[in-house]
Amino acid sequence: MPPPNLSNDTIDDIIYCARANETEELFSTLSSTAQSTGANPQDVLASAVEEHSGSTALHMAAANGHLDILERILDYFSNPSSGRASSGAEQGNGEALVPAPVTAFVNIQNASGNTALHWAALNGHLDAVKALVAVGADLEVRNKAGRDVVFEAEGAGKEEVVSWLLGVGAEKEVEQSKGEEGAEEKIGEGGGEGSSKSVEEGVEEMELGEK
Length: 211
Description:
This protein is mostly helical and 211 residues long. The chain has helices at residues 8-20, 23-37, 41-47, 57-64, 67-78, 100-106, 116-122, 126-134, 149-155, 159-187.
């Protein structure tokens, strides 16, 4: 199904509600727009991009720390059938699988190259940062100024966010290292003649999501 063709007024309403924390009005608009266009709320959200900044409702909620709106938006993508997230499927190791649509949406970059995580980190909204990272927000994405999320948070003096993000990055490096070591061990298993072991970015804080 092609993406819905939204009017500028509808896009402005969605972006404004997410920025101003108008929760009920936002989700009422999403529901009515989905019905009138024959689309689902996820497609409406993905198509509601502010013309000049290239920002989405998720950018606005993240920039302003509107956690309820942010989580409800993410829930639409995590569990499309109900519009609310469930506990999710699990991998064999017990870790929750993150649906591909939410990962793609959460990493959308605006005209300045900023993701929702950039704005949440820059403005020190730790709970929003955690919610975004939990569904696959990429810590390594750089904006057009060449800055990743840690650089933005550090430049804005958001030490709590910086500390948490660095901890997440360290954990990912450890997990990746363990995975590589495990792969090397499997290569060397068997003991036969054919077996062998493998050798081994400061900016000013934005107001209300405008930049």
